[in-house]
Structures are given as C-alpha cells and as structure tokens.
Design brief:
About 30% of the residues lie in helices and about 40% in strands. With about 80 residues, the chain is an alpha+beta fold.
Length: about 80
C-alpha cells in the first residue's frame, strides 16, 4: 500500500520535511517513489509547497495521505484562495 507522508530532514532543532510517496511497509527513511512537495515549519509563516496535480494523481492510484499531510493540504488550499 502506498502512503503520502512526511520525511524529516534538516539539522537538530531545525526540522525540514519532504512530502514523499512511499511504500507503507518500509520505514520513512527508506527510498521514496516520488517527492511531491516540502514543508518548512522553521520560517514564519510556515512554508508549504505541494504539487497538487501529482498528489491528486497518487491519491487516484490508491495512495493514502497521512493525517499530517491532509492538514498541510488544507493549509496550502487555504493559502492559495
């Protein structure tokens, strides 16, 4: 089963997240199928960049977004309106 989830990057106390599509049976650090965006909570306001077309493609194929990714999708949707 495919999941759209966050992968933590960055230094200690300076997190940066990549939003990736990966197999749910593998660890979040394992290689990803595709990177579809990123999230930087260290800046004010937090920066979210998602490729909505690719996210919708993967959801259409059967990938399930994590709860955190769903929140980020809503945050991005509200910012673009």
């Amino acid at each position: 089963m495919l999941k759209i989830r966050l992968r933590r990057m960055g230094n200690r106390n300076r997190p940066f997240y990549r939003i990736v599509v990966s197999d749910s049976r593998r660890t979040p650090k394992a290689s990803a199928i595709e990177e579809v965006g990123h999230y930087n909570p260290a800046v004010d306001p937090p920066q979210v960049e998602l490729d909505a077309a690719r996210v919708n493609h993967w959801i259409g194929v059967g990938a399930k977004p994590s709860a955190a990714v769903v929140k980020l999708m809503k945050l991005q949707e509200g910012a673009s309106s």
